[in-house]
Amino acid sequence: MARGGRSYGGECGSAGGARFRDDYSDYRLFDDELGAQPMNQLFSLFYNNSLAFSANVPSSSAGGESGGASPFLTKPNDAKNKKEHRMWSAFMQLLPFCPGKIPSSISCLGHMLIFGKMAPTSLTARFKQTVTPASLRAYLAEFISTFFYVFAVVGSAMASRKLLPDAAADPSSLVIVAIANTFALSSAVYIAANASGGHVNPAVTFGMAVGGRINVPTALFYWISQMLASVMACIFLKVTTVGQLVPTYTIAEEMTGFGASLLEGVMTFGLVYTVYAAGDPRRTSLSAIGPLAVGLTAGANVLAAGPFSGGSMNPACAFGSAVVAGGLKNQAVYWVGPLIGAAVAGLLYDNVVFPAQAPDSVREEVSEGFSV
Predict the structure, then answer these.
(1) Mean per-residue pLDDT of the chain
(2) Which residue has the higher pLDDT, 141 or 77?
(3) TM spans, by residue (predicted)?
(4) Which of 203, 226, 227, 234 lies closest to 321, judged by CA?
(5) Among 31, 224, 329, 334, which has the highest number of CB atoms less than 10 A from its own CB?
(6) Is the full-model pTM beyond 0.70?
(7) What is the distance between the alpha carbons of residues 14 and 74, in angstroms, rounded to a whole number?
(8) CATH number of the domain at 130-369, please?
(9) Are 246 and 156 in contact (CB under 8 A)?
(10) Residue 37 — very low, low, confident or very high, per pLDDT cuts 50/70/90?
(11) What is the CB neighbour count within 10 angstroms for residue 299?
(12) What is the rounded CA–CA span in Å between residue 353 and residue 347?
């Protein structure tokens, strides 16, 4: 065996078995590439260039056997610090079994439970990486775009109340708010897209984190920027429009909290799914109209659910108006539903509908099939 390595796993030295060298640089974990992508996304929440699931297996392994087509969990040899390498080594010593042909999603569960102990150290490093000039620009972009979005949406609701005698029962009030949502969100996403991705919404940020597009510390700073911007926008509206009350999101009398939360979750799923599609670099033809597609989705959802739950889809907008108005009633509706819907969208888009490893030709055929 090269470099004095040793093989673990007993009879599991063949395809699907656990096998790695003294430097623990290779570990056979998956028997299919489909299992590699989700785990890459999950580990990317806490780790940066320290772990990677890959199907690029060398032609020969450390044990001299054919690597075949089974993917490996790889660990770069140039570990940044000895502590990280020692923890990695200890983790490998805890895996004397092999997944064999067990589905990747199941076989990784035990690995994740053990491996989670390493998260705090790398999470600290992640926080350090979130305070960089580029990151600060992204947080500022999220603050500015969210501020103007909330200003336009809440401001339009205040304007409709002032102009219409009974805005709550007037359909034109709903149209005003829906149009404001469409234009404001499209513009907000557009102006922040190159700096921060144009989330403008904690639910979108959560969906991106679940999907592996951003890591957890960055998502937390995005949330802080968005929430602060929403509160500041509502305070500005309250101060400048003397005598006007800041409206809050409420659910209809005939609606239950569960029903309203479910409605918000479905709408947010559609919104976040559209955000994923609009920002997909593999859909270059949609890049120019991406922000408009996101805004149109939000506007349509407001028209559909405005009379029932308010059509928030944005926990920051609901939170900011509630804080300034002095009441946090039904806030769980505007957090639980949207976050669950966003998480489902983040998991489905890259892992099921448009997996990252799908050939471009297949993706093009699917796109052409729906073209008019």
Answers:
(1) 73
(2) 141
(3) 136-159, 171-193, 214-238, 258-279, 286-305, 332-349
(4) 234
(5) 334
(6) no
(7) 18
(8) 1.20.1080.10
(9) no
(10) low
(11) 22
(12) 9
